[in-house]
Each structure stands twice: as C-alpha cells, then as structure tokens.
Amino acid sequence: MSTHKNSKKYIAFSVIIALALFVGGFFLGSSRSANAGLASASTKADFTEFWKVWDMIDEKFPDATTISAQDRIVGATKGLVESLGDKYSVFFDPEETKSFQEQIEGSFGGVGIEIDEKDGLLVVIAPIKGTPAEKGGVQPGDYIIKIDGTTTEGMSIDGAIKKIRGVEGTPVTLTLLSKDSKTTRDIKLIRAKIEIPTLETKKLNPPAGGGVFVVSLYNFNANAMIEFRKAMEEFKSYDGNKLIIDLRGNPGGYLDASIDMASYFIPAGKTIVTENYGENKSETAHKSKGYSLGKKNLKVAVLIDQGSASASEILAGALQDYKLASLVGTQSYGKGSVQELVPVTDTTTLKLTVAKWLTPNRNWISKQGLTPDFKVENKTRPKETGDSNDLQFAKAVEVLK
Questions:
Q1: What's the CA dihedral at 173, 178, 179, 181 to 10 degrees?
Q2: Annotation marks residue 310 as catalytic
Q3: pTM, to two decimals
Q4: Is 199-341+354-400 a CATH 3.30.460.80 domain?
Q5: Which of 99, 106, 167, 366 could form a disulfide with 336 if both were Cys (CB 3.0 to 4.6 A apart)?
Q6: 4-18, 242-256, 297-311, 377-391: which has the minimum mean pLDDT?
Q7: Terminus-to-terminus CA distance in the chain, angstroms?
Q8: Any idea where the domains of the chain sit in the sequence?
Q9: Tens-place pLDDT, residues 161-209
Q10: Which one of 321, 332, 351, 395 is the catalytic residue?
Q11: Is 308 exposed, middle or buried (0-12, 13-18, 19+ CB in 10 A)?
Q12: Which of 310, 326, 332, 337 is catalytic?
C-alpha cells in the first residue's frame, strides 16, 4: 500500500507506480551494456530482452530517430501497467495526466460521458447532466459501436476518449447500441466545454411532497464534500425529516468523500467501508465521524441505477447495510475496487488499483452491484429529478411516506 504523501484514493470511472527503479534503470550511467543482463534488486527481473529489443529498434526500425527515448520509456511504462490485466490501472502520459486532472477538477472539453469496458465492449456508464451527450439522448448502458465511423472493436478506453474529445464546436458521431435493441443508432454531438456539476438541492413541501428534501449528487469530485456539507446544513434548517439522495448516473470519485458523506447518517465509530489489500495484508476499516443532523425519526431513500458506481455504491451500500435508508431504482454498476492516484514525475501519473472494498456487512459488489430494496424501472430518462416521468422518484417519495 503506497504512502506517497501526494497520492489520493480515487474510485471513479475516470478512464481516461512505484516505478522509480524501473524507469531510473534506463538512465543509470552511460554504458547500458553494463546493466543489460542484471536483475533489478527489487523485482529480480532480467532486462536483457528489453535492451535487446531497444537496440534492434535503433538498428533496424527506419524511423527510429524520430521517436525519442522518453517516448519509448512512456510506452514501455504503459505496457508494464497494462500487463496487470486490470482496466482500472492506468499510466497517464503528460497529455493524459492533464486531461485526467481537468476531469477531477470538474471541467474539460468533450461531449460529457463516462465510459468503461464491459463484456469486451465499450459501454456508457452515464452521460453527465446538462452536456451534449445527455441532451443528445445517450443513455446509461449504451454500447459504443463506432466513433466517427471507426469501429471500437479492440479499441482501448483511453483510445476512445481521445477520439471523442476534441476542439469545442466540432462534431463527433457515436454509433450506439442499446441493451434493449438489436439495431444501432447514430447520434451526432457537438463538442463543448464540459463543466461537471456537483450537487443540487430541492424542497418538496407539504402536502404534495410530504415535506421531502432532495439532494441530487452528480459526482464525488474535489468539491463534493464541501457542497454536501452545505446541503446537510440546509437540511438541518428544513422543517421536515424526509431525505432523498439521488445517486443515479453518479460514477463516483474520491473515497474520502463517500466516507465523509456517510458520516452524517452512520453512528460514530461504525465501519463505513473496508479496504482489503489482498492475502496476508492488514485491512483498513474506515469509520464514521459521527456528524449529527439533529433530526428525529429521520427517513432516507437513495436513488440508484446502473450508472451509480464506486463511491456512490459505498455510500448507498453502507446506508443499506445499516438499514438507515431504502434503495430505490435499478441494480447499480458494481465497481468494487479502489485506485490510488500517484504522481510519478512532474508530468506523469499512475492510477493503480490498490484494494477491493467491502460494505459494512463485508459484501464485495464487484460486477454484481447493489440490489435496490424497491426495484423500479423508468420508461424514459427523466429530464430532472422528480419530473412527471420519474417513476423511481415517485416511488422514493411513497416509501418515505
């Protein structure tokens, strides 16, 4: 488990190392041959093959001089991380690091979708609220078959992101296949600057809503804890004890944010989530900070769907395990791992899976997700929380009554 002072736990679908010895080995001295067959002291790996391929490239590849040594190192490092076979572990080059930071901080250029790989295909986790993707009709669970006419078969998540993102105002066409359809559809989207929203609140006062306070949480980004704290302060002063937390289409974010938010509902000292680092390694149980809302007979419903992932599932899963909230909607995505974001150099970053996480009842929800207490399908995607087509929201209000 890394203890890098600048590392951060991150468990979202932002898809776009302790590599100091490996990368440093490329620069040890002026004579490579002296090190060519030596094994690393930490890994016992023999680099003979690597240097032999390096020299053969120099000798035989026609354009070898156009590819810098640094570019080769970045490529080799990417390959090292890819060898783990873990789609959530990624080495970001300088361009990708910048893009990733923009996404975490809440602003980037593109069409506004979170994507992942499932069953060997690229799939939409969720369109971001208010973006070209959402307005254009992209749905959670849509498979991306082509991008501008180019098949995505065999395309990496990173490769897809690079093709989808681009200059603001330019078009990109996605060929999508719905999980409920046998025919594809083309959606032409105009790229825009994507501002990721964090949170919105709404009050449904009696008698129509029975005094319900609604928090729609779109992201567990760097601003989420502060915004959620403000929302809870607003709820404290609200004349009502019913709360709906809408996590639909929320792909997750920082681990600390999910723990902080759960602490408003779970008694101090109770486990919210446990990080399991593998065999023969001590686990880390993250405990509630015991924030008080000062509400008697508090009633909570949490809305989830297949776009609710990672940090969303930690919050929802903890509340469900302690029977502090009813989950309403459809099965969540099922992402049960934790990534650590570690700067490797000033311009490159590693996002590495370091643990799997378990709910308070020690359930690992990877691939299967959370099962709602009340399963409700929306026939169409609601334009906003609580609109006339939002059957899931209507059920949540009913459950709270």
A1: -130
A2: yes
A3: 0.78
A4: no
A5: 366
A6: 4-18
A7: 45
A8: 8-96, 108-195, 199-341+354-400
A9: 889 988 899 999 999 998 778 899 999 999 998 877 889 999 987 655 5
A10: 321
A11: buried
A12: 310
Half-sphere exposure for 382 (CA within 13 Å, toward CB) = 20
What was the pLDDT predicted at 32?
45
Q: Is the pLDDT of residue 152 over 70?
A: yes
pLDDT digit string (tens) for 72-114?
Answer: 999 999 999 999 999 889 899 998 888 777 666 655 678 998 8
What is the Rg, in whole angstroms, of the alpha carbon atoms belonging to the chain?
23
Residues sharing a CB contact under 8 Å with residue 328, sequence separation 6 or more, in sequence order? 301, 302, 303, 304, 372, 373, 374, 376, 392, 395, 396, 399
Identify the CATH number of the domain defined by range 108-195. 2.30.42.10
- Cβ neighbours of residue 398 under 8 Å, at least 6 residues apart? none
Cβ neighbours, 10 Å, residue 136: 17
From the list 129, 146, 335, 395, the catalytic residue is 335
Q: Which long-range contacts (CB under 8 A, 24 or more apart) does 52-56 make?
A: none
What is the CA angle 343-97-120, rounded to 5? 110
CA-based nearest residue to 291, from 270, 305, 314: 270
Query: Given the DSSP bridges, would you call strands 212-217 and 242-246 parallel, antiparallel or unpaired?
Result: parallel
